[in-house]
Amino acid sequence: MPLTGITVVELGSLIAGPFATRLLAEFGADVIKIEPPGKGDPLRRWRRLHKNTSLWWAVQSRNKKSVTLNLKDREALDALRKLLERADILVENFRPGVLERLGLGPEELKALNPRLVIVRLSGFGQSGPYAQRPGFGAIGESMGGLRYVTGFSDRPPVRTGISIGDSLAALFAVIGALMALRHRDATGIGQVVDVALYEAVFAMMESLVPEYDHQGYIRERSGNIMPGITPSSTHMSKDGQPVLIAGNGDEIFQRLCNVIGKADWIHRAEFGDNAGRDVHRDEIYATLDQWASQHDAVDLLAKLEQADVPASKVYSVADMFKDPHFIARHMLLTTRLEDGSSLKVPGIVPKLDRTPGQMKWPGPALGAHTRIVLFSLGFSEDQLDDMAARGAI
User: Fold this and answer.
1) Number of C-alpha atoms within 13 angstroms, CB side, residue 2?
2) What is the CATH architecture of 232-313?
3) What backbone phi and psi angles, to 5 degrees, belong to 35?
């Protein structure tokens, strides 16, 4: 696998840091997740549970090893240092300053292991006037601009249905880690990768900044449409299914015109390009609404597919489970939980043809790998027994 031989230590909880290490683990990295004894990552108890453990946990911590260490204990902290001496990557999502108070700030870590890549995720980054503020993904989505443009113009901003800010930060963390590894392979020296949640969201905001700087334009909420890109919107079928129709390419729009019985639109000069169509988007969308309402979703999608117009039903997870393309692309994998029960989980992304990622095991029990990992670091059975007795592991 592409990351075989890379050791990653995770000092994180919940979403951003652990999602980043999950991606690394899926492609062969040996990820050692450090958790507090007796409690573990709070994600173990988030959302829907199976026998007191989150179903999300099975996905977020798959392929990882769980090691419990009470970092207030001197010997446990020493064990962490020994791990970091051998590691290639550290991923942490503490509030800035916590790592330093543990005596594991970047300077100390560079002295301990000059080759270590240190990935730090936080709400606002490691510097700047807001660095010490608490910041979750929701704050990053709000400050980064995503929440402001999400929803309908006559209502307050809304969130997406997932923690997208955390996940975007995790993706940038992985990209940064891999770039830093490439630099380390060339120079022998690691570096710090500083990922702020609000910046990860901000980086995705397309033309927001230059439009405001050059023309004073502030993008507002626009519901299911995207001003400036027409037509691309959701329309309700006769049987009440939301269907996304994306006919915004010039040639695609011409094919769409033929499907919906508006061949005359092809000859309207103002409909010849995206800018002209956008001026007349209310007329276009009203016509698409009327046309979609006359057809059941299956028939509507069949007509659009035959005309080579991009379209899709807006899927629920139940739709995904039935879709042959999800199945053919191995996007629904089956694993088994500790009690032997079967569980479907998301497949691996991206697809690599020579060194594909894989799922070896679901999220482990708390501390499942503590003894074997610490034993490999030179701790004796007697030491481990003593550490366990005083709650250090």
Assistant:
1) 17
2) 2-Layer Sandwich (3.30)
3) -130, 150
User: How far is C-alpha 373 from the chain's CA centre?
Assistant: 28
**Which tokens in the block code for residue 345?**
């989980």
> Which residue numbers are catalytic?
166
d(CA 355, CA 329): 16
| pLDDT mean over 355-379 | 97
12: pLDDT strictly greater than 90: no
C-alpha 343/C-alpha 58 separation (Å) is 9
Q: What is the pLDDT of residues 62-79, one digit of tens each?
A: 999 999 999 999 999 999
Q: How many residues does the chain have?
A: 393
Where residue 226 falls among pLDDT bands split at 50, 70, 90?
Answer: confident
> Among residues 67, 119, 126, 124, which one has the least CA distance to residue 91?
119
Q: Where are the domains of the chain?
A: 7-203+330-389, 232-313
Q: Is 304 helix (H, G, I), strand (E, B) or coil?
A: helix
The CATH number of domain 7-203+330-389 is 3.30.70.120: no
From the list 392, 337, 393, the residue with the least C-alpha distance to 363 is: 337
Q: Which two tokens stand for residue 330?
A: 């191995």
C-alpha 247/C-alpha 253 separation (Å) is 5
> Which of 173, 176, 99 lies closest to 137, judged by CA?
173
